[in-house]
Amino acid sequence: MAKLYFHYSTMNAGKSTVLLQAAHNYRERGMSTYLLTAQFDKRAGAGKIASRIGISEDADTFDGTTDLFDRIRAQSTEENFACVFIDEAQFLTQEQVWQLARAVDDLKVPVMCYGLRVDFQGHLFPGSAALLALSDEMREVRTICHCGKKATMVVRQDENGNALREGAQVQIGGNETYVSLCRRHWRDAMGDQPLD
Fold this sequence. Notes:
Elements: E1 4-9, H1 15-28, E2 32-38, E3 48-50, E4 56-58, E5 60-62, H2 68-78, E6 81-86, H3 94-107, E7 111-116, H4 126-134, E8 137-140, E9 153-156, E10 178-181, H5 183-189
Parallel strand pairs: 1-7, 1-8, 2-5, 2-6, 6-7
Antiparallel strand pairs: 3-4, 9-10
């Protein structure tokens, strides 16, 4: 039975690694997959899903105007694939998440989305909010804070390592820009001193 999945976490938890491994598992069993990623994330090159551990795959890209239902339907007439994988799912629009839900329901193809849950200010991304509302199954990809607790938040840092409190919700970056923290240490970094 086809489902809409949302695999979420904070930065540097290994979401892309998990996606690439899952896609590999399908192909290893003789099943084709269809991979998509955000068009403007070109850290590994245009149309690439890449992991920090050095593995990568080519992928089609989407932006805020892409009709994902039409894209998946058209691609499925060219190639019979067993699953759709979407990286950087936080950049989906609410309408695109509904399009993915339609693909699951009407085309009967599983769709696995991987993305951030919250931004550096602790706010849900629009795509993540819609996925939290519409997904059939949600799975957290976990990473840890420097204190050893589960990291659920992320701070954006300037070039001197200072936590930024303002800025655009979207800024592409990696370890040089973002640090994953537990909520307590995120509050501390953002200037909300926890009581000891």
